[in-house]
From TrEMBL:
Shown segment, full-protein numbering: 180 to 403 of 403
Gene it is expressed from: coaBC
Keyword Ligase belongs to the record: yes
Stretches assigned to the DNA/pantothenate metabolism flavoprotein C-terminal domain: 6-217
Function: Catalyzes two steps in the biosynthesis of coenzyme A. In the first step cysteine is conjugated to 4'-phosphopantothenate to form 4-phosphopantothenoylcysteine, in the latter compound is decarboxylated to form 4'-phosphopantotheine.
Pathway(s) the chain acts in: Cofactor biosynthesis; coenzyme A biosynthesis; CoA from (R)-pantothenate: step 3/5; Cofactor biosynthesis; coenzyme A biosynthesis; CoA from (R)-pantothenate: step 2/5
EC number: 4.1.1.36, 6.3.2.5
Signal peptide coordinates: none
Record's protein name: Coenzyme A biosynthesis bifunctional protein CoaBC
Gene Ontology molecular function, alphabetical: FMN binding; metal ion binding; phosphopantothenate--cysteine ligase activity; phosphopantothenoylcysteine decarboxylase activity
Reaction catalyzed: N-[(R)-4-phosphopantothenoyl]-L-cysteine + H(+) = (R)-4'-phosphopantetheine + CO2; (R)-4'-phosphopantothenate + L-cysteine + CTP = N-[(R)-4-phosphopantothenoyl]-L-cysteine + CMP + diphosphate + H(+)
């Protein structure tokens, strides 16, 4: 119907940062608050989609009507995404760590009197978006990524869309001072296979509603 155009559809949304453990008490993370991803999960649920939100550690409350899966690391996030399949719609708004600490310490690293600071080595994390977008079997019908850029917004998002194999890429400017990480507003460029839409500056909630409406429009012509 008009109020719930995504009834009968299943959606998966990732949100928040990942935490990559250094030892049992320390981690490497980032400044993602989960506001954008959580708002998208809430908007898809309001539009009628059966929605699973897979989130790193955030202070955001669980959106109403959404099944929430809490994880910490990128590898846990990938496993949770795979468990949530099959879905019709997948939106990857999480700020996933590109690298984890290689050989994380099983015990707390000790500061030794007069000793050297530890040296951390890194290993590459799986690319969750690319993994799901390139599934030979069970690929979601519509795969949407975010491109966090500090320059050449649209050109970088066009290249990233092709590289990762997703259908739509939402480019946002995460330069210092924009407040895109952690703030309540966002300015989006929606990159598809054959078009670029420049959205005005909106609240993250408005971005979520507009995205849900675009997704509903995409599915309108397809059988549920
Ligand atoms: O959480 P907020 O404070 O509200 O901030 C929102 C946001 C800025 C985090 C969000 O709008 C956003 O841009 N999310 C994507 C951040 C990011 O990691 O961008 P990227 O350009 O590095 O990655 C591109 C895409 O690949 C993203 O969809 C990302 O989720 C995905 N990715 C990246 C690395 C990886 N190992 N696996 C992935 O799936």
């Amino acid at each position: 119907g008009k109020d719930a155009p995504l009834v009968g559809r299943r959606a998966l949304v990732t949100s928040g940062p990942t935490y990559e453990a250094i030892d049992p008490v320390r981690f490497i993370g980032n400044r993602s608050s989960g506001k954008q991803g959580h708002a998208i999960a809430a908007a898809l649920s309001r539009a009628g989609a059966e929605t699973t939100l897979i989130t790193g550690p955030t202070a955001e409350p669980a959106p109403q009507g959404v099944q929430v899966v809490r994880i910490e690391s990128a590898r846990q996030m990938l496993a949770a995404c795979q468990d949530a399949l099959p879905v019709d719609i997948a939106v990857f708004a999480a700020a996933v760590a590109d690298w984890r600490v290689a050989g994380q310490a099983p015990q707390k690293l000790k500061k030794q009197e007069g000793g050297q600071p530890p040296r951390l080595e890194f290993a590459e994390n799986p690319d969750i978006l690319a993994t799901i977008a390139r599934l030979a079997q069970g690929r979601p019908g519509l795969v949407i990524g975010f491109a966090a850029e500090t320059e050449n917004m649209v050109a970088n998002a066009v290249a990233k869309r092709a590289r990762k194999g997703c259908d739509w890429m939402l480019a946002n400017d995460v330069s210092t001072g924009t407040g895109t990480f952690g703030g309540d507003a966002n300015t989006i460029h929606l990159v598809t296979a054959d078009s670029v839409e420049d959205w005005p500056r909106l609240t993250k909630q408005q971005v979520a509603d507009r995205l849900a409406a675009r997704i509903a429009e995409h599915f309108r012509s397809l059988p549920a």
